[in-house]
Design goal:
Helix content: under 10%
Number of helices: 7
Number of strands: 58
């Protein structure tokens, strides 16, 4: 489980994202020796500081700013644009259909021999008692976890459907657990919405709309007519390509229509006749839609965001739209149709705000009997001015009409007072309401409501009183203990933090509530039990290992000296660092937070360096095995904070590059504004042991580093978004000598796009391959977008040759030279391989349309490991590839 104030900025076109990006941990906190907190560098004491700094990039509408210096909101938003997304979009705007075309092209490639093996398809225990070290979140109470779940659906026959952020849709017929993937044939595995209609059909809206840092666009809406059986098919897409390359926040039903709230406005389609185009019901700024006069404007992706649709149960012709960008814009508000035209509701909503300043991300929920409507509202003004929370409140319309009048039934202070785990100034309930929201009403009781923000809340009296039934974690409560003999002392299991999806269904005649969050799927009885603090005593994790949607940024492999075989580790979105030793039947978590890049000693898999974010690096020499005794004796800690100085100044990427020299594993290279080198390997104990060997200059940060025999290749960007995007390469030596910039003109051979990875030939340091992210100029409208995704140099980077050949036009994330001289590429849609002596590329095995962010080989070079961002870690034997 990660500390709250982590991650995320905004979306450009490829991915919706949002602010609240985690800032650097001061060196004093990163030392791993600070006080008796159970969180190491992830202390709650840092939350207020991080929140204060994270709000900085949030760019509100000009009318929300007290001293707006230039009034150009689009420039400000673009400047703070999410780093994960900008790698795929800069230097311009990507046209719709790019991913779909890439997927079709990839499927046409010839395939290699050999099959992928899922390495991480077993339970991942975030509370594994072996790993209670200072930088672990073990004992927090989340139990078994998997990757982020964006949407949940459930019926009364025991079937549950879980839609993951990047790993597709999963089905259970046992009320959760024993999962099966059912969307692997689709060209998009990112989920925005799941909904069962009155006929029991399952509707899937692709494209995650949580506005976080690593979401992907979708390919439209799909229907599974008999969801108890079968799988989703591309042939069962609803309508045409109107919703291709959008994100879908919600799907709602009424009046014989399905309504879709998307990143490009609100659309509708008949639920009976699935052919024919979607109808655009409302877009507040249609000139910014694809094909519009302002479609190429950098601010276009923010101008037509729809969040939800509320349909009057007594009159389906009465519809209220919740529309608006979470950071604020003039068009934000609630809309309804009057005399055939959509008009903003100016007043008359009661406590629910109608002004643009206070309407942001909104979620609706309706009671089964039609007597109540509920809503969560995130306020742009609160987001930009309140360091504690962005929540405007939770509201009820007791008339059952979405037009109200609405009454506020909860705010962040009240929720915090209901035994929340988030009571520290700077991080209180709703601080990430732009990212975390769900609502559902008990079908048998219109006053029984579950609400999800960072935590799970329950009210049984329509909002009169609330209980925090799913606290953020158990740290800080009197029942908590780090004792490895217990999960979290005398506390009951809670859910993982950061709630996104919810559903109520029945299994064996009993009603359950299912929640989806950054740690997977959990359930409890709808009428469950609570302790004296109002915390639920009956949560069950449904992440049993049959569902693997883990979102890896990295992978590391080393020999398991204690048990033989190999140890496999990797950094994850919001699920720390997983570790799987050769004799394990359950993975453990030895570092918490967002796990970024990782280094593992091939000769000893317990020598591990794990990056948190912004180069906050920890190192351990015993796999971070610890019984928690460091809480009373600081000398017992077995991991150490060794962040280079760019961490303290935030001059590094969110997931910053980290590498070891191919010829000398004790020489490490880390990239921020500077290129940092340390030569103590896994014996490093302090951030002061890093030496700056090159300075890119203010405003520039490293995007990729690699080294062999003391020769270092380093790529940078700055600015890194599509407002004047620039990139380059510098080459030099680990001792600080010989550094020089490579000439890469905008219109040269190497495109003016994000440079994402180097692969150095282990036999010749002058022979290097370069991976280039984003899409080629056919899809990207930006200066120098160029063509190609992989380039080769034989003279140390002085000149480059495009060797993309038949490679699909797909963002390429990293490259690796195999021991036999082949080249493997990790792309947003899988892995491709060029065998030694060949000039064309083959698709490696058969993976769903999942992003692969990093490749590594086993210590003997015989096995290729792929870190996917949504389906765990996979392995394939290299000799089988040919």
């Amino acid at each position: 489980m990660s500390v709250p104030t982590r991650r995320r900025r905004w979306f450009t076109v490829c991915a919706l994202t949002a602010s609240a990006a985690l800032v650097a941990i001061p060196p004093s906190a990163a030392s791993g020796r600070g006080g008796a907190s159970p969180f190491g560098v992830r202390t709650l004491g840092q939350l207020a500081k991080e929140r204060e700094r994270s709000v900085g990039p949030v760019s509100p509408s000009p009318h929300l700013q007290a001293d707006d210096d230039d009034g150009n909101e689009a420039d400000e938003i673009a400047e703070g644009a999410d780093q994960y997304a900008e790698a795929r979009t800069s230097p311009g705007v990507v046209a719709p259909g790019a991913y779909g075309a890439a997927w079709r092209s990839l499927q046409r490639l010839p395939a290699t021999k050999g099959s992928w093996r899922n390495v991480t398809d077993l339970p991942y225990n975030s509370d594994d008692p072996r790993y209670r070290d200072i930088d672990s979140n073990s004992s927090g109470g989340s139990g078994d976890v998997t990757g982020r779940m964006a949407a949940i659906a459930a019926d009364d026959d025991g079937y549950v459907y879980a839609g993951s952020a990047g790993g597709g849709i999963w089905r259970s017929h046992r009320g959760g657990g024993h999962w099966q993937p059912i969307s692997d044939r689709l060209p998009a595995q990112s989920t925005g919405a799941l909904a069962l209609d009155g006929a029991g059909r399952l509707w899937l809206g692709t494209g995650e709309a949580t506005t976080n840092a690593d979401a992907y666009l979708g390919s439209g809406v799909y229907l599974l007519a008999h969801p108890h059986h079968g799988t989703f098919s591309p042939r069962r897409r609803v309508g045409g390509d109107e919703l291709d390359s959008t994100t879908i926040h919600e799907l709602r039903f009424g009046g014989g229509k399905v309504w879709a709230a998307t990143s490009e406005g609100v659309w509708s389609h008949s639920t009976k006749k699935l052919s024919g185009p979607w109808k655009l019901e409302f877009a507040p700024n249609p000139e910014f839609l694809p094909g519009g006069s302002e479609a190429d404007d950098p601010g276009a992706p923010y101008k037509n965001i729809a969040n939800d649709i509320a349909i009057d149960p007594k009159d389906p012709s009465k519809v209220v739209l919740a529309v608006g960008w979470r950071s604020g814009d003039d068009y934000n508000g609630f809309y309804t149709k009057t005399h055939g035209t959509w008009k903003r509701i100016a007043d008359g909503l009661g406590d629910l705000p109608a002004d643009a300043d206070n309407v942001g991300n909104v979620t609706f929920a309706r009671s089964a009997d039609g007597s109540r409507y509920y809503a969560i509202d995130q306020s742009p003004e609160q987001l930009n001015t309140n360091p504690d929370s962005g929540l405007e409140g939770i509201f009820v319309s007791r008339s059952g009409s979405p037009t109200g009048p609405w009454t506020k039934i909860a705010d962040y202070k009240g929720l915090a007072a209901d035994n929340s785990a988030l009571t520290s100034p700077g991080y209180m309930p709703g601080v990430q309401a732009w990212y975390n929201q769900f609502l559902t009403v008990d079908p048998s009781d219109p006053q029984h409501l579950y609400a999800g923000l960072e935590e799970v809340y329950e009210t049984k009296d329509g909002g009169g009183t609330w209980s925090t039934v799913g606290p953020y974690w158990n740290f800080g409560f009197s029942c908590w203990s780090i004792d490895p003999a217990k999960q979290s002392g005398d506390c009951h299991q809670t859910t993982h933090s950061d709630q996104h999806g919810v559903a109520i269904g029945r299994y064996h005649g009993r009603a359950y509530v299912y929640v989806g969050n950054d740690g997977g799927v959990y359930r409890r009885p709808v009428h469950g039990s609570q302790d004296a603090s109002g915390h639920a005593t009956d949560w069950t994790s449904l992440n049993d290992g049959t569902i693997d949607t883990l979102q890896y940024y990295s992978v590391g492999i080393g020999k398991d000296l204690d048990h033989g075989g190999l140890s496999v580790t990797g950094g994850l979105q919001d699920n720390g660092q997983s570790i799987l030793r050769s004799n394990d039947t359950v993975m453990g978590s030895n570092f918490g937070g967002d796990g970024g890049d990782t280094l593992t000693n091939p000769a000893n898999g317990c020598d591990i360096a794990q990056e948190y974010v912004y180069l906050a690096i920890q190192v351990t020499n015993n796999c971070a095995v610890n019984d928690g005794s460091w809480t009373t004796d600081a000398s017992k800690a077995t991991s150490y904070g060794v962040a280079p100085p760019d961490n303290a100044t935030s001059e590094a990427r969110f997931i910053a590059p980290l590498a070891a020299d191919l010829k000398n594993g004790s020489t490490w290279i880390a990239g921020g504004r500077h290129i940092w080198v340390q030569t103590h390997g896994y014996a490093i104990r302090s951030g002061s042991e890093w030496t700056s060997v090159h300075d890119f200059g203010a405003g520039r940060v490293a995007t990729a580093v690699a080294a062999s025999g003391g020769r270092i290749y380093a790529a940078w960007c700055g600015p890194c978004n599509n407002q004047g995007f620039a990139r380059g390469i510098a080459v030099g030596n680990a001792d600080g000598t010989g550094w020089h910039d490579i000439s890469l003109p905008v219109d040269g051979t190497v495109p003016n796009r994000y440079l994402s990875g180097f692969a150095v030939d282990p036999k010749n340091a002058d022979h290097v391959f370069l991976a280039v992210n984003g899409f080629s100029r056919h899809w990207t409208e930006g200066p120098g977008a160029g063509v190609g995704h992989v380039f080769e140099s034989g003279d140390g980077g002085t000149t480059w040759k495009d060797i993309s050949a038949n490679l699909p036009d797909v963002p390429t994330d990293s490259a690796l030279v195999t021991a036999n001289g082949g080249v493997a590429l990790a792309t947003d849609l899988g892995v491709v391989y060029r065998a030694p002596g060949r000039t064309t590329w083959q698709r490696v095995g058969s993976l769903p349309a999942v992003a692969v962010l990093q490749l590594k080989t086993s210590p003997d070079g015989g096995i290729l490991y792929a870190a996917t961002h949504g389906r765990g870690i996979y392995a394939v034997k290299l000799r089988a590839l040919g």
